[in-house]
Amino acid sequence: MVGLEISKKSDSDSIKNNRLSDAVINLDQGDPTAFQEYWMKMKDRCTVVIPGWDMMSYFSNTTDVCWFLEPELAKAIKALHGAIGNAATEERYIVVGTGSSQLCQAALFALSSLSEVKPVSIVAATPYYSTYVEEASYLQSKLYKWEGDARTFDKNGPYIEMMTSPNNPDGTIREPVVNRSGKVIHDFAYYWPHYTPITRRQDHDLMLFTFSKITGHAGSRIGWALVKDIEVAKRMVQYLTINSIGVSKESQTRATTILNEITKICRNKSESFFEYGFEKMKSRWERLREVVDSGDTFTLPNYPQAFCNFFGKSISNSPAFAWLGCKEERDLGSLLKENKVLTRGGDRCGCDKKYVRVSMLSRDDDFDIFLHRLATIKDLKCIKP
Amino acid sequence: MVGLEISKKSDSDSIKNNRLSDAVINLDQGDPTAFQEYWMKMKDRCTVVIPGWDMMSYFSNTTDVCWFLEPELAKAIKALHGAIGNAATEERYIVVGTGSSQLCQAALFALSSLSEVKPVSIVAATPYYSTYVEEASYLQSKLYKWEGDARTFDKNGPYIEMMTSPNNPDGTIREPVVNRSGKVIHDFAYYWPHYTPITRRQDHDLMLFTFSKITGHAGSRIGWALVKDIEVAKRMVQYLTINSIGVSKESQTRATTILNEITKICRNKSESFFEYGFEKMKSRWERLREVVDSGDTFTLPNYPQAFCNFFGKSISNSPAFAWLGCKEERDLGSLLKENKVLTRGGDRCGCDKKYVRVSMLSRDDDFDIFLHRLATIKDLKCIKP
Ligand SMILES: Cc1ncc(COP(=O)(O)O)c(C=O)c1O
Ligand SMILES: Cc1ncc(COP(=O)(O)O)c(C=O)c1O
User: What are the required cofactors (chains A, B) (predicted)?
Assistant: First the structure.
């Protein structure tokens, strides 16, 4: 039985922490360690035991298009989407990846190698998840080419739009913006009820999800794609076969156990991971907004409320990242760095340096220190050019 | 306590199997399921238990160049190489990968992106591991270009030679052949005493190893690189960061447990995995040679004996693949396929179709059926154009 007590450190506690610790706080990456306390309370309910002789083969199911996908994981994924109501899984192929990062690249390969004209342009509306730039550029492929902001994209020819909703870094709900007859990769890493209202059952050609951002198990490196077109699925599997001959069976097994458990208890108020996660994120956002609103230095986006089909009530977004801005023109990333808080500069997301992306998924201690340091900057009114 | 009884099915057993089973035998991939019987006998000695709250972070050790490498795995790798004496690990960076497949591509990225002139030529002496062609070609990178057989390579400019020893597919002991001032990736997937005499402690700039082919745990997708140059190691880590944000922690933990165990008992005659593996491979090779030598249809390479520093005696190679040839000019892959045995055609390895690569690492049943079908082809003297 998991209680939903969210640890809200008192101010004096966090000040003590801050005094004790002069350490740099890294909120650049979105390492989802915030949820570990939930799993600690679950004790050994999701423990997996793997004997030495198990899972030795490269193959999981030679009759599946995705031959390295464990059939039990496929079932667990379908059951979870069914219970949450966030995505359609019927008449789709599931492709498992070493995180959704690998799947994003598998999708770029699949869609571009099936295109008659190459290179295919890759675009995303700013501010975008900065990693897309790296994923589309590092190997200098002749198949595709990073073309930057989708809003100003005006080239002819085939394109792929990376569409992230809720968006990383700014938490907004998005639709594709190019709207010609190109391809869209729907990255739904954060389309789960602890981050955002589930307003519809998504039903697109190519949707990406990641275990990392649902339950916080980023170390397992498990993501999946729901793919309508068998030719696209086959090419993605070809990519994963050449790139890494499939995906860790140990991680797939553990993900199966954990996803099955959160599905089973998702309607149990006192135990549900999503209830816990929702309260946790909401409380962090309230505390952050309190600090920001109590001064005249920083900005945060405002999110409209919407009816969440999963919770059956109207809720707001509590994104995994805060898109923190600065009212004056200033390099906010450098300012925060001077104050020993590492964040991702807005310039890396195709935007201005007066914005930074701050992870909201750190451990409680780090989050407390972050709020305290933010409050200090604000108090000092040190925002001078 | 693991007994070293190698199951040698009697002829009548395998004929019965063959009659019972009309199934296609897949010896195309090198799926190392042969060793599972050893792990069954080990019972729960290498069982790993992973609680739900463990291994959640993307990070393993932020002070290591390879920040996603579990420190315990690094120790286990060093201890194993130390005990076997097959490779130097001092003054080297360890980079872990999702199989050595991913590391091979990380190495191509690292070496070519550090080269002033691009694309860098990628070569390998025929017959080569066919996957290198795919790895170097599928993304149509501008960084490197597959140029085929290393022996006929005469282009100027930077190159990377893929050097596999013992070689996949033909089991020969190799040295680089281009011998200009290019880079060499030493793929030592099979440089372990159950496959080949350990004649020296390898000590090169960039060496690849894989968990898959040591103990047979291919499903875990764990490989590692031993890298001398920190700049190369850093670029490999950059590749792995973008490609999949590191490597499954569950797999790393399980590999740690299993590698530590085989190291601990490697000198214990009755328990050692390497003693077991050596006897197993030797016995399979003897049985295969018996079938081949009893007719005038097929050929196999001959391997010289050499003194193995690990076993302290002179032994021969027992490669993980048989490089089976056909005395007449003929498409051997098609012939075997007609007889319901799938193999990899020599043409895919840059050679003639009169050769095929046959996995020697299948389960006992499949190996028995393979030998039986081979004997049948030979008896029928059906090698007619
Ligand atoms: C929008 C988005 N997509 C994909 C990923 C990749 O996640 P993973 O590779 O851990 O599955 C992330 C991680 O931060 C993300 O924010
Ligand atoms: C020579 C060689 N290198 C690398 C690999 C890749 O192994 P893995 O990706 O399973 O580590 C193989 C597998 O067959 C191989 O034969």
Answer: pyridoxal 5'-phosphate
* pLDDT confidence of residue B179: 85
- Is the confidence at residue B4, as pLDDT, over 90? no
Contacts of B109 in chain A (CB under 8 A): 138-139
Residue window 243-302, chain A: list those with CB within 8 Å of chain B.
243-251, 253-254, 257-258, 261
Query: How far does residue A100's CA lie from ligand 1's centre (Å)?
Result: 6
- How deeply is B59 buried, as exposed, middle or buried, from its count of CB atoms within 10 A (0-12, 13-18, 19+)? middle
pLDDT at position A13: 52
Question: Which chain B residues touch A361 with a CB distance below 8 Å?
Answer: none
3-state secondary structure (DSSP) of residue B62: coil
How far is Cα of residue B52 from the mean position of the Cα atoms in its chain? 33
Residue pair B377/B335 in contact (Cβ under 8 Å)? The answer is yes
Q: Domain spans of chain A?
A: 22-40+271-376, 56-265
pLDDT (0 to 100) of residue B381: 52
Give the span between the Cα atoms of A289 and A277, in whole angstroms.
18
Using DSSP's 3-state secondary structure scheme, residue B110 falls into helix
CB B58 within 8 A of CB A362: no
Q: Tell me, what's the pLDDT at A21?
A: 64
Q: In the structure encoding, which two tokens stand for residue B240, read together?
A: 């792995």
- Contact assignment for A48 to B50 by CB distance below 8 Å: yes
Which of A213-217, A250-254, B19-23 is least confident?
B19-23
Task: Using a pLDDT cut of 90, give the percent of chain A over it.
Answer: 91
Contact B7, B34 (CB under 8 A): no
The pTM for the full model equals 0.94
Nearest C-alpha to atom 13 of ligand 2 is from which residue?
A: B30
Task: Compute the distance from residue B61 Cα to the ligand 1 centre, in Å.
Answer: 20
**B330 and B297 Cβ atoms separated by less than 8 Å:** no
d(CA B286, CA B30): 19
Pairwise pLDDT comparison (A181 vs B250), residue with the higher score: B250
The CATH class, in words, for A22-40+271-376 is alpha beta
Three-state SS at A87: strand
What torsion do the CA atoms of A324, A326, A327, A330 make, to the nearest 10 degrees?
Answer: -150
Asked if B55's CB is within 8 angstroms of A239's CB, the reply is no
Q: Does the beta-carbon distance from B43 to A57 stay under 8 Å?
A: no
Q: How confident is the model at residue B380, as a pLDDT?
A: 56
Contact present, A316 and A329 (Cβ < 8 Å): no
Separation of A360 CA from ligand 1 center, angstroms? 14
Q: What is the mean pLDDT of chain B?
A: 93
Its ipTM equals 0.94
Contact A250 B250 (CB under 8 A): yes
Q: Which atom of ligand 1 is nearest to the CA of A164?
A: 1
Domain A56-265 has CATH 3.30.70.1400: no
What tokens does A207 get?
Answer: 């949707």
∠ CA B342-B345-B349 to the nearest 5 degrees?
A: 135
Chain B residues with CB under 8 Å of A136 CB are: none
**Cβ partners under 8 Å of residue B312, min gap 6:** none
User: Is the per-residue pLDDT at A331 higher than 70?
Assistant: yes
Whether the predicted pLDDT of B49 surpasses 50: yes
Distance from C-alpha of B359 to C-alpha of B32, rounded to nearest angstrom:
8
* pLDDT at res. B133: 98
The Cα–Cα gap between A336 and A330 comes to 11
Which pLDDT value is given to residue B8? Answer: 43
